[in-house]
Amino acid sequence: MGRSKKRTATESDNEAPPVQSSEDELPVTKKAKTKSTKKEKVAVKPVEEDLEEEELEEVEDFDDDDDDDKGWTQADLLKLFSRMEVHIPERDKSKFESCAAKLDWNDIAFDNFSAADCKLKWAAVSLRLRRYRLLKELLDDAKEWVYKPWTNFYRSQKTNRHPKMPKRPLSTYMLFYMEKKDKVAKERPNIEMTQLSKIIAEMYKVLPEKQKKKYVDKAQVQREEYTRKMEQFYEEFPELKPTKTKRTKSAKEYPGPRKPCTPITHYLKDKMEKHSNEPESERQKLTDQYKLAWKELSDKKRIHWIKMALEDEERYKTELAQFKDANPSFADQLHKSVLNKEERALYEKSIGKPEKPPNSGYSLFSRIMLSSEEIKNINHKDRMTQISSMWKNLSPKDKRKYHDKVQQMLEQYKMDFATYLETLTPEQKEEALRKAGTRRKADVLSGKKKKIVDKPKKAAAHNSDDDDDDEDDPVRTSKSSSSYPVEEKVELFKGEPEAPPPSAFKLFQNEFLVSAKKIPEANRVKDSHTFWNNLSETDRSKWRKKLQDAKTKYISKYENFLKSLTQEQLKEYSIMKTNAKKIKAEAKSDGEEDEEDDHDNDEDDDSDVSKV
């Protein structure tokens, strides 16, 4: 820690650049990069080699500095810090530099160390500590630093390693890189370092296994040598050996049975079994290759792994039920299906389940247009906007054609679905009906008796040729003509307040369906749209205000409801909500979307319901 190392930030900034040892080569430094121009021809110098050289110099700085000092030992340093601490004024609140400058170094000097020696030594040590604090605080850190004098707060953890600690060996690829970099740099003198790395990486990828083995063996020898040197290092410095802490089981870890795997996970496990002896780097490379192969797998072959995943899921459900019986206090967790939407559709198609058609003329039109070349050439974010505009430009007669086509598809779907149900076991049929929304959620929810709040039923489909049944109006079928799906009911816990409608239009519609007794019940839903569109902006604002008041009252009631629950009731309520979310997630994966809620969300902006 020589005196030459002490310099201020100003001196460092104004320091002249180092003299180049060669006119043809410049060192790769941050200054050289910022001041270089495109016209300069800078020879490529490997970044890795530079970092290693700089790192070694930084680690060895302390040892070099000791040669210039007057033999400062640990005891001498601790004595210096203690004498400085005694001379710090009481209630000192000044910067450490100001306080150190005011000390009487003649009183601090001791033994063979003069006042100047002590002052210079402290200046050198302070450069390695976290500054911008009180001198007393720095001295506390300095006393700990004495036992690790190679460390520096302003350097990375990597460069703060012990100077005698062996360096980690290079990997197989880095050995190849270090061997080829000079040759590639010489062939392309003006190439950037990033491009150089890419070229060598491509060379390594296509390297034959026989040639690659040379680097693998060399890396293995270096790793063994590194392990041997590290053992010797820890024998010499046992206090630096990291202590292995026994891993305790986290409270957040899942305590139940092994969770099921997805189809691709089963596929990868099967393929990677024959590569168990490969190096980790090669295994990762093979895993990436098999992931790409999975995407190209035919539907017929993919079905095999989908069925395997479903069997694993059934195994998990069985074991989970047994585990819950043995552990009554176990809180069930929301389980995500092992199949994604695409895999679920593929499996259901393989077992004969008919595909659900669009539920409105606009949905059918959108599906057709999204697969057309005209729309594929449009920006992804603008496609639906373009489709909406195209739909608006259609004549009522053309729109009616799409609505009529949807009606035909829905009728055919109902017959095909009924046929499909006949092929299922009673348990499978019940599950299929539950997912289709034809059974009340209360059949699958356990716990306290719940209050049922009925929503108004949907009206029958109308056959007029006007535009009132535009794209945001799903085609509605009467209850007598279809039971797929029926309107869901909202389950409320005992004492739970009913939530207000999600939009001003929905609030208006609910009251309209009850009060418009002169209008036939089958036409009320349709007419509610017309009446809403004819309202003035002032009247709509009144409904918005009414909705806001209802939401405010609901929040207050809901808070009081939660406060009134006991711990057991709160737990039951939480389980009920979790199960409800699980059912909703399963229904969503089957493509069972609640079109009425989608319509309500569109109405949050209180735009005309006949618009997109």
From TrEMBL:
> InterPro entries annotated for this entry?
HMG_box_dom, HMG_box_dom_sf, UBF1
Q: Provide the alphabetized UniProt keywords.
A: DNA-binding, Nucleus
Q: Which residues bind DNA?
A: 166-234, 257-324, 355-421, 498-562
Q: What segments bear the compositional bias annotation Acidic residues?
A: 49-69, 591-612
Q: In what ranges is there compositional bias, type Basic and acidic residues?
A: 37-48, 486-497
Is the keyword Nucleus assigned to this protein?
A: yes
GO terms, molecular function: DNA binding
Indicate the principal place this protein occupies in or around the cell: nucleus
What GO CC terms are in its UniProt record?
nucleus
Pfam (any one): HMG_box
Q: Which domain of life is it from?
A: Eukaryota
Region of interest: Disordered: 1-70, 244-263, 431-501, 583-612
The record's annotation in SUPFAM superfamilies points to:
HMG-box
What is the protein name for this chain?
HMG box domain-containing protein
Q: Which species?
A: Cloeon dipterum
